[in-house]
Structures are given as structure tokens and as C-alpha cells.
Fold this sequence. Notes:
The protein is built from five helices and no strands. The chain is mostly helical. Helix 3 runs antiparallel to helix 4 and helix 3 packs parallel to helix 5. It is globular. The N and C termini lie far apart (about 30 Å).
Amino acid sequence: MIKFKRYPHINDLLEHYINEMGEETIRNLINVGISSAEEAELFSRFVWVVVEKVHNDEEQGNIVLCGSDNTEMLPDLSYEVTNYMKAIGYYSIWEKISEAEM
């Protein structure tokens, strides 16, 4: 199970967008953890979709998790995902996708 502990609000942020987008595959990955390079890539791409959605929600004034600007959570998201990917051995995948998305 993927459960972020230093910044637990990241769990809520991901859950919000999983629900909004109906991402059951990502929900399953969070429930059981990532066990392959393909799953690491899928999760990494989802995280970058979340980043885009956070920015879009802020620009449109949408309320998410009781706030209209959650961009301050993005460094926490990066920290948590980076540490998780390092811990499970898929940091290079996260890094490659992140470089392409920036």
C-alpha cells in the first residue's frame, strides 16, 4: 500500500483526483503498491496529470480539499513520490517522466 506519512495531505489530494477521474487502476496501485516498471510509469504519469489538474483548478477557482489554491502542495507531492520511487527502485522512471513533463 502506498501511504505517504510525512505529508499525509498528499494521500487526500491523490484520492480526490482518483475519484474525480474515476482512476480505478491508480486506486488499485495505491492499495497494493507498485511492483513493476510499467506500474511505476503509469503512476508517474498520473501524478503529472494531478499536477496539471491542481494548476487548472487554481486558475478556475475550483475548491478542492477546502481550498481554491493547492499549488503549495506540489513540492510535498514531489517529495513523497520521489522518496517512494527511490525506496522501491523505480526512481529513474519517475525522473525520466518528470523531465519530459517539465
